[in-house]
Amino acid sequence: MGDSGHQAKSGSFSERLMLLLDRVEYRRVESSEDMEDIARLRYKAYKAVNLMELTDARLLDELDFDSQAYVFGIYLDERLASTVRVHHVTPDHRASTSGIIFGAEIDAFLDAGMVLIDPGRLAVDPDLLGDDLRALPYLTLRPVAMACEYFSADRCLTACRPRHAGFYKRIFQSETVVALRENLGVYNADGALLVAQVRGQRPSILDRYPIFDSEPFERRLMFADREEVPFAPLTILPTARIAQGGYGKIFSRGT
């Protein structure tokens, strides 16, 4: 297939993603009840792919409650469909999901004074089918792209199974730091570490995936300290259409 055909196919998928985004709400998970829902979804998703030895103790951990960790639930048609945990990692605050496995490599970036975004604990409901299931990883990664913008990150990390590396290279133009690390302890899988350069990449990423775009007020609702936004709504509607100059809902849905 030539370049023109590939572009048409990509554009069509990008349009479907934007249409699906109209059915999506984001929730920053902070209550114990919502955290239990997240744990159940993780269990269901990880069990479906035999990712780790499952015990209740491992589905929630201390990193879920770290001061620079942000756990999000992604709701499709008001149903919890996926989740991701986003870490804001700095030289003075190094807690992160990937750091447990790739500590030495990540410390090298932090020792150079870089600010990192590290997504982890990504889980998608395996009961979803068809286009919804195919699209959800992209919609789930949207808070990651937003965090990179909000925190002015230098790099975005990805710790994943080696067979998934191509996905992140296509989306974020990530580069391989560790191609294969075997025997990851609690995980029943080998791992790879990828790193994307954030600065300067945003225009090309948004050109291919405009759903990653957002308005500043949405990013603030997602990541600001609660002292700054004490009356933040329970769920947040995406603003990609507004940021792209299109129509859409520009408000957030309250409790």
UniProtKB/TrEMBL annotation:
<protein>
    <recommendedName>
        <fullName>N-acyl amino acid synthase FeeM catalytic core domain-containing protein</fullName>
    </recommendedName>
</protein>
<dbReference type="InterPro" id="IPR016181">
    <property type="entry name" value="Acyl_CoA_acyltransferase"/>
</dbReference>
<feature type="domain" description="N-acyl amino acid synthase FeeM catalytic core">
    <location>
        <begin position="37"/>
        <end position="194"/>
    </location>
</feature>
<dbReference type="Pfam" id="PF21926">
    <property type="entry name" value="FeeM"/>
</dbReference>
<dbReference type="InterPro" id="IPR054597">
    <property type="entry name" value="FeeM_cat"/>
</dbReference>
